[in-house]
Amino acid sequence: MAYLALYRRWRPTSLSELKGQSHVRRTLSLAIKNGKIGHAYLFTGPRGTGKTSTAKILAKALNCLNPKDGEPCGVCESCKKIDSNASMDVFEIDAASNRGIDEIKNLRETVKFAPVDGKYKVYIIDEVHMLTTEAFNALLKTIEEPPAFVIFILATTEAHKVPATIQSRCQRYDFRPIAANEIVERLQFVAKEMNFEVEEDAFWLIANHADGGLRDALSILDQCAANASGNIKKEDVEEVLGLVGGVWIRKLAEAIGRRDTNEVLTIVDEIVKKGKELNQLVAEVSLFLRGVLIYQSVGSFSDINLYRTKEEDLTTSAELFTSERIINALKKLNELIYALKWTGARRIMTEVQFISLCTEESANVTGNEANNAYNDERIKRLEATVAALSAKLANVSANNTASTVAVERKAERRQTADEPKKIIDKPQKETLSTTVIKNTENKDTVAKKKTDGEKITPINAESGQKLWEQVLDKFVENGKKNVVACLKQGIPVSLTENSIAVGFKSVMMANLANKLYKKQVETILSELTGRNIALTTETVQAGASTPSVKTVAEKSAPKTQKSEELTGEGSDNLKLATKVFGSNFIDAPNKKLKQITISPETSPDNMSENVRANASKNIPVTDEFDDFDAPPPPGDEDFVDFEM
Q: Which of 193, 208, 241 is the last residue in one of the domains?
């Protein structure tokens, strides 16, 4: 008979022989004993942990003629056929090579036929994650409601690639990596049965490199037995696996601990000459330093797998390293392992990283000492400066200082309280002749002015322009350039304690400011003046000069009559207006507006309701742009372009 590999010869044949998967063994055993068998199972976990073996054991237990406590007997005809892969009722499908929709269609056709020898037909689909999306969709309905005598067992190492629709229809069992001590226990059993002589350290070295897979461990043992003719030592395992060896690793780690760069490079050169892989060298150094770190932290490693390093080696190395240095070294070695996969200069990268492990901490210590010296000198200078300032302050009288501070604070409060008064000129009860060209205020504002009889007063050109510029500056600070683009074309016309009127050359821009930016401007005016000031917009004559601020009287003084043509009360009013506002008259607008003459005796505060009503008629309200809600498109002839 041909030689049979150890992992095939010693594959578990019953649930009791299954190592490292007690949770799976117990659950399946109870389910078989109680007859609670699911129609689909999903076995997932790392390679070599017993997924396919468990699937075959389950198939044997379900078709066994003489089951005992949920275990197959192993001697009946059905069990023997399944062990020899001769059963007509157990189908093992490799999804890696049968992954298409055609193979799944053939499976669906054969599912409907009854079993030949046993009670169940069992389909074991290995590496099920390799199936295509179409194949999964074709399998979906069959795996959800198979015939009563059909059971599906899906095995995979990558469960995340199996669609959720498939997983939800299966009972999922997660196989865990097998612990090193359980692998050693199984290896010892196999070595005893095979009459192998194996050192204890060799068992543990094989278990550590199997990475939780019992199949890998049996394969390594099989290879070592062939190489050493049945007498296996630790050195044989190191040679088979291509390991650097514990002696070289300990020497290299101790040289790094002593910061002996020359010895480190010499050891690396010797290891390279022996033909060892540099990534394996870095990995073994990392494992050794891990053992040193755990030994420093715990003080004992009886219950922890530390790569089977001798305690005396750990004690010597622990004296050469600090915990912080080991942690930093492990991070750098991990980065080196990743870099070695992609670099073409593997030896250079390795040597540079090992040299940095020898020199980095000493460089940090030197840098810290320099920083401490600099900080000490800086603290001394600061202390001298503080002492000098304290001496100067001691010469100043506390009372004088307190008095000066009080006077300055009082002046600041007075200045803050007076700022709105400087900006807003109180109305004078003098004769006023007012003509408004075109008012774009909303109807509610006009109605309110009609009711309240609000006094419109001219503003000082310098203070009004300054206030308006402060408003624009606020918008610039907030980054609202589109608002500034519109409001910059406005000219402050009149100002009261509760409102401000701004004139625009374009009706469109006046409506734009009133419709879109009114609330924002009023908020900023409130912040600047400390009171609630409402914004109203007007349309000024096209010939008005933007930089200068024209008062209401200057804009509205009629030129239909010369001063020498007026007599009586009209002449007196004109003289009074000229005295107050100057003689700079402008032409009357095209629209014919009524003019109200207000004498000093009938100031706005004392006007009757009829006079107020008539006065309000001098302010024509246009409805031309009442429905304007958005800025005009580019190219509108009323839009005024300018540069910020």
A: 241
- What's residue 466's pLDDT? 77
Q: Is residue 277 in a domain?
A: yes
Range of 256's domain? Answer: 246-360
Of residues 485 and 173, the one with the higher pLDDT is 173
* Higher-scoring residue by pLDDT: 54, 598: 54
Q: In sequence order, what are the residues at sequence separation of 6 or more whose Cβ sits closer than 8 angstroms to the Cβ of residue 233?
A: 199, 202
Same domain assignment for residues 146 and 218 = no
Q: Within a 10 A sphere around the Cβ of 241, how many other Cβ atoms?
A: 15
Q: Whole-angstrom Cα distance, residue 209 to residue 88?
A: 39
Assign residue 497 the CATH number of its domain.
Answer: 3.30.300.180
Determine, yes or no, domain membership for 599.
yes
Q: Collapse the DSSP code of 483 into the 3-class scheme (helix H, G, I; strand E, B; otherwise coil) and give the result.
A: helix
| Same-domain pairing of 511 and 585 | yes
Answer yes or no: is pLDDT of 122 > 70: yes
Is residue 280 packed enough to be buried (19+ CB in 10 Å), middle (13-18) or exposed (0-12)? middle
Domain co-membership, 578 together with 527: yes
Closest to 503 measured CA to CA, from 555, 457, 467, 455: 555
* Tens-digit pLDDT profile for residues 401-446: 555 555 566 666 665 555 544 444 444 433 333 333 334 444 444 4
Mean pLDDT value of segment 503-514: 82
Q: Which amino acid is at 486?
A: C
Looking at the structure, do residues 469 and 576 belong to the same domain, yes or no? yes
Distances (CA, A) of 233 to 150, 273, 630: 49, 23, 89
Asked whether residue 270 is domain-assigned, the answer is: yes
One domain for residues 169 and 46: yes
Is 611 in the same domain as 572? yes
Residue 198 pairs with which residues in a beta bridge? Answer: 232
DSSP string, 515-555: HHSHHHHHHHHHHHHSS--EEEEEE--TT--SSS---HHHH
Q: Assess if residue 388 is contained within a domain.
A: no
Coil/strand/helix, residue 493: strand
Those residues whose C-beta lies under 8 Å from the C-beta of residue 567, and which sit 6 or more positions away, are: none
Domain count, the chain: 4
Q: By the 8 A CB rule, do 438 and 619 touch?
A: no
- 8 A C-beta contact, residue 432 and residue 599: no
